[in-house]
Write a structure and sequence with these properties.
This protein has 425 residues and is of the alpha/beta class. It has two domains: 6-30 and 302-424, Alpha-Beta Complex (Aspartate Aminotransferase, domain 1); 55-292, 3-Layer(aba) Sandwich (Aspartate Aminotransferase, domain 2). It has helices spanning 6-11, 33-45, 55-75, 89-99, 121-130, 156-160, 185-199, 221-224, 248-253, 264-267, 281-287, 290-297, 302-326, 360-370, 383-388, 410-424, and strands at residues 21-22, 83-86, 109-113, 133-137, 139-141, 152-154, 167-173, 205-209, 228-232, 242-246, 332-335, 347-352, 373-374, 376-378, 399-403. The strands form four sheets. It has a seven-stranded mixed sheet with strand order 2-10-9-8-7-3-4. Strands 11-12-15-14 form a four-stranded antiparallel sheet, covered by helices on one side. Strands 1-13 form a two-stranded parallel ribbon. Helix 5 (121-130) links the parallel strand 3 and strand 4 (133-137). Helix 3 (55-75) packs across helix 11 (281-287), helix 4 (89-99) runs parallel beside helix 5 and helix 13 packs parallel to helix 16. The protein binds pyridoxal-5'-phosphate. Pyridoxal-5'-phosphate (PLP) binds next to helix 4. This is Aminotransferase class V domain-containing protein. It comes from Postia placenta MAD-698-R-SB12.
């Protein structure tokens, strides 16, 4: 089994050569040199409107089409006509829910999680507009660690109790941006569809938020059998753009057009119906740098690259979790699963509670004072999840989050642990 060439991966990100330790990657990763080069080249050499017949417009149109192909490959979607670009996952999901207004009945139910509100809020608003109901798939105590009340996760049994004949949509995260835990999407979708069919639900669609998942694992919208999925390229080593996958059948049967009225017939089966106005073309072209970079890490094979990334990330995760577990008597509580494993990514959250509690804000301030390590605290917009943790926390103070990706190194983890040792002394 070949391992990841971390030095090679780091060389693709100029920011990493400064020695600054980037450990807030779940907020946004560093961007590839090649993405910046492409953006600059687009702006300097092909910066015209798309769709005209003159040669430069033909070139810019092709570049934006290549961006859609890059997203299709990363999603493993069937067609480029299933991907829409936007500036954020939050905006794309809000647009998606708007477009579904006409296909949700007043007595129907939408199931959401307490994870990042991007895949919760739009469905709550849709339910309000339609007089439908939302139900919460709550994270519950993990049986492996009954002594840590913050060791929680989304569990399938909990979800299955929420499904009824009125279920219309299930919206969940493939990976939690707080807990770091990965949901077995394929198995969950099979279980949702089987239970819904058994109960006679009219139509159940699944919308999966892959924003915290895509930097660490391979997406497979076809294998998963999901209707909608979203990820943000700025967390997958590219520029600030996001992409929405919409299954072709859902595009035509479940969604109305948000585009100008006179475009409606032309966009009936096109992602542009969810994209009122063009995306930033140079940014879409910049996104095409991501698949070749990833493939190269697996000697030309994307699957191999992600397998190497996942194995390397486990070597970062294990010592960090082991250290935090060793500080349990000091009041450290990991928020999420306490042990490494391929069902967990190196997004590690914790709190310091008890007689010598330390606010998350104060832990992060000690890192900030060092000036060379970037981590963060808060609820990270998983407001419902963080406010449901019990014993309750100050939701604004939230958790301390250290989020690593494949370009982080073991030496960096050791540095982080050294700072934590000082803080917890
Ligand atoms: C799990 C998850 N979903 C959604 C989002 C929102 O993504 P965007 O900033 O592209 O709207 C984030 C951002 O942190 C996230 O972590």
């Amino acid at each position: 089994m070949a391992s990841l060439d971390v030095a090679r991966s780091r060389a693709a990100f100029p920011a990493l050569s400064s020695g600054y330790l980037y450990a807030d990657n779940a907020g946004g990763s560093q961007c590839l040199t090649d993405a910046a080069t492409r953006i600059s080249d687009y702006l300097l050499n092909t910066n015209v409107q798309l769709g005209a017949d003159y040669s430069v417009s033909v070139a810019s149109t092709t570049r934006v089409e290549d961006g859609a192909e890059a997203a299709r490959e990363l999603f493993n979607a069937e067609s480029v006509d299933e991907v829409a670009f936007g500036s954020s996952a939050t905006m794309l999901l809000a647009n998606l829910a708007r477009a579904m207004d006409g296909d949700v009945h007043p007595d129907e139910e939408l199931i959401v999680t307490g994870e990042h509100e991007a895949n919760g809020g739009p469905w709550k608003h849709l339910a309000e507009r339609r007089g439908a109901t939302t139900k919460l798939w709550q994270a519950t105590q993990l049986s492996a660690t009954p002594n840590n009340p913050y060791a929680v996760g989304l569990q399938l049994e909990e979800l299955l109790t929420l499904i009824t004949a009125k279920t219309r949509l299930v919206a969940f995260t493939a990976c939690s941006n707080i807990l770091g835990s990965i949901i077995p999407v394929k198995d969950v979708v099979i279980a949702i569809r089987a239970r819904a069919a058994e109960l006679g639900a009219r139509k159940v669609e699944v919308c999966v938020d892959c924003v915290a998942y895509a930097p660490h694992r391979l997406m497979d919208v076809r294998g998963w059998d999901v209707d909608y999925a979203v990820f943000s390229v700025y967390k997958v080593y590219g520029p600030h753009a996001s992409v929405l996958y919409t299954r072709r059948a859902a595009l035509t049967r479940s969604l109305s057009s948000l585009a100008h009225h006179f475009l409606a017939p032309a966009v009936a089966a096109k992602p542009y119906k969810l994209q009122p106005g063009g995306p930033g073309y140079e940014i879409v072209w910049g996104c095409t740098a991501v698949p070749p970079y990833l493939r190269a890490l697996g000697d030309g094979n994307l699957e191999e690259a992600i397998a190497r990334i996942a194995r390397h990330e486990q070597t970062l995760l294990a010592p960090l979790l082991a250290f935090l577990r060793s500080k349990s008597a000091r009041g450290v509580r990991i928020v999420g699963a306490e042990h490494e494993g391929l069902d967990r990514v190196p997004t590690v959250s914790f709190v310091v509670v008890g007689e010598r509690a330390i606010r998350s804000q104060d832990v992060v301030a000690r890192f900030d004072a060092k000036g060379n390590i970037g981590i963060r605290y808060g609820h990270f917009y998983a407001y419902t999840l963080v406010s449901s943790l019990s014993p309750s926390l100050d939701v604004e103070d939230g958790v301390v989050r250290i989020s690593l990706v494949h370009y982080n190194t073991l030496e960096e983890v050791v540095k982080i642990i050294e700072v934590l040792e000082e803080i917890l002394a």
